[in-house]
Amino acid sequence: MSCSYSLGELCTFSRGASVPRARMYVQGDYIYIHYGDLYKGFSLRVDVDSPQKKLPFILKSEKIREGQYLHDQDIVYVLTSETIDDLGHSFLFNNPKGLPAVAGTETTIMHITRRDLVIPAYINYLLQTEYFKKLLRQYVKGMKVFRVHPDDIAHIVVDLPTLGEQAKMVSLLDVLFEQHTHT
Q1: Most buried in the list 7, 8, 140, 171, measured by CB within 10 Å?
Q2: Within a 13 Å sphere around the CA of 50, how many CA atoms are in the beta-carbon half?
Q3: Cα-atom radius of gyration of the chain, to the nearest Å?
Q4: Spatial CB neighbours of 71, under 8 Å, sequence gap ≥ 6
Q5: Is the CB of residue 57 less than 8 Å from the CB of residue 27?
Q6: Considering only CA atoms, which of 52, 62, 73, 53 is closest in space to residue 30?
Q7: DSSP H helical segments within the chain, as ranges?
Q8: pLDDT in tens, 43-53
Q9: Is the pTM of the predicted complex or chain greater than 0.85?
């Protein structure tokens, strides 16, 4: 049995912090997830304990708002791009040790607030589907740079199976993802 919810009922959305590359370092106070790095080296998730590529850092002297910090199982969403096809890339942020981290320029953080209804990894897989990207594209604005506002995403309705069914699907999809990335 499934129930329908708008994403706004399941998540909150925050814009990432704007820090230029010149103020990103090999070491620092906060891991910094820059949208440009997401396109090169990450495909579905960012695993802090074993990243697919080195993660940059920023210093705590940067002006960071509370909503720009990333927490374990948040989703980093790219909602600004030069091509419509690049819109909507999402990455599950796996940070089980809770290392201090910040989402960067041109990213949106989806923080799952209703974990009693949805598993964050399930939402991230759902965001990868062509069906969802089709729904997302109806909200695209812009001519040279394309954007989707988080308020628009909040209106998209998704059907959620039970948590048990979600867990089974995530387990299966994780196996398929791992097989695909190691071949």
Answers
A1: 7
A2: 0
A3: 16
A4: 93, 95, 98, 111
A5: yes
A6: 62
A7: 7-10, 35-39, 120-128, 130-137, 150-153, 163-181
A8: 889 999 988 88
A9: yes
Q: How many CB atoms lie within 10 A of CB 27?
A: 7
81: burial class by Cβ within 10 Å (0-12, 13-18, 19+)? Answer: buried
Share of the chain residues as helix, strand and coil, in percent rounded to the nearest 5:
30, 25, 40
Q: Residue written as tokens 């909507």?
A: 88
How far apart, in whole angstroms, are the C-alpha atoms of residue 103 and residue 133?
22
Q: What's the CA gap between 4 and 56, in Å, rounded?
A: 38
Q: d(Cα 133, Cα 61) in Å, to the nearest integer? A: 37
pLDDT tens digits for range 70-81: 999 999 998 888
Q: Angle at which helices 130-137 and 120-128 pack, to 10 degrees?
A: 70
